[in-house]
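Case study 2.
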Amino acid sequence: MDAMFSGRRTNLALLTVLGGAFISGLVVQALGTAATRWLLVVHGAIGISVMVLSPWKTRVADRGLGRRNRGRYFSLLLALMAVTVIVTGLLHTTGTVSSIGGFTVLWVHVATALALIPLLVWHFLARKTYPRRVDLARRNLLSLGGVSLAGLAMWFGADRLIRITDLAGKDRRFTGSHETSSFEPAGVPVTSWLDDRVPTTGDAAWRVDIDDAAGARSLTLSELQSLPFQDITADLDCTSGWWSRQVWEGVRLTELIDRGEARSIVAWSATGYARRYSVSQLDQLWLVTTVGGEPLSPGHGFPARIVSPNQRGFWWVKWVVRIETSRVPWWVQLPYPPT
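Prediction:
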């Protein structure tokens, strides 16, 4: 294995596993469904595989730093950020630390991983770590497979240790998120997507515009609340690394929207934020005005927000002011909102 993981091939192996870590992490963050549970296992195992490869990378780094070239400081920064990604991933998984500098540990983990991408691209180009046909030799593939299996075994071992030692991470959800303030709405963190800010809207001024097969119309808050309301117990699972179960009250969109020939529904926020849903989800979406028997607070979407069980928090559009049907398929949008 020493022959496999030396010099260029060490860098190539790390590039391969880091690419897998980025892809699996992005998919888990975007979807967050029970069906993608296995991807979280893969993501964790890949992270540990990076640790398995670190002794070989240390040897390569020692040789590179000894040359004292101009890129050595970028290499040191890359190494520091990579260690930060791994450590914050471990801290979040175990639940031993919940926040760093006012940000959740998972937020730091994801932000650092994204910031690492340009440095990895620079490292790849500067070191000319290009794949060669010999890299696909049976021995090399078996060595890489051995590292992957070692990472998987260590992940399951670590997961078992977390449960035996009764760390907070033992109760994490299948998305990796930790429970907070279930059935206590006042304790639920207030989060918004990137540059969204809490708007100021009074009861009297608020309207929700509906544009569907039945035509265009507007509803006031009292008119909305006159429609058949339901209680929905649903888990809000935020990409910041926490989830909370609450009882929401609102109207199912099947009571509000005439789908006609539409292929998707778009919910717009007062901030300009929007998400597009498949029409097949109509009976799984609610426009809610209360949580825990009380009106939504401004930070949690007052006067009305979308509740979309089984989807991550960024699908739960807050401060809804418009809902429209569209002939555009739901998937014609970025996996993550740009703002």
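The CA atoms of residues 5 and 56 lie 6 Å apart.
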